[in-house]
Amino acid sequence: MRARFVILGTALTIGLAACGGGGGTEERHHSAASGVQAASVKISQSSLGPILTDRTGRTLYAFAKDKDGGSSCTADCIATWPALTSRGTVTAASGANGSLLGSTRRAEGTTQAKYGVWPLYYYAGDMNAGDVDGQGVDGVWFAVGADGKLVKAAG
Asked: Which residues contact 49 (CB under 8 A, 6 or more apart)?
């Protein structure tokens, strides 16, 4: 009987480990030397024109209802619009303006990247790099331009 509990406990531990840990949205890029790298953003060409993306080309969005540089997207909102978080300082690459980069502290304690005054988010409906399916959703979600302003018109 005891052996059955040991086997069950081991199977449960392995199963939970396979599911992966945190539900965070930290940009997942690894290097052997340093573990998880800090996030970086760049400017990529899209059907909307030049927009802000992560290092892999995934579109980054802003929520027009965010005020004073802080995030107001929580609970159900964050499930559809995951925040770009980073353990380290977010860096600017390929066309992004480093002086516009910053961060804000989220209510749950994570650090969310922002560009200009806008906290940055992904859209769960974007499946591939270059997708812009979140553009204009509910009239409040927009890609972010190289100048830190919301892109409200098609390129």
From this structure: 145, 151, 155
pLDDT in tens, 3-19: 443 333 433 333 333 33
Which residues 6+ apart lie within 8 Å of 5 measured at CB? none
Q: Are strands 40-46 and 91-92 parallel, antiparallel or unpaired?
A: parallel
**Given this model, what pLDDT does residue 155 score?**
55
| DSSP bridge partners of 83 | 121
Report how far apart the first and last C-alpha atoms of the chain are (Å, whole number): 67
> Residues 57, 117: contact at Cβ < 8 Å?
no
pLDDT tens column, 60-80: 999 999 999 999 999 899 999
**Nearest to 148, CA basis, from 58, 54, 5, 51:** 51
d(CA 69, CA 105): 10
d(CA 145, CA 137): 17
Stated as kind and residue range, the H or E segment containing 36 is strand 35-36
Q: How crowded is the C-beta side of 9, counted as CA atoms within 13 Å?
A: 6
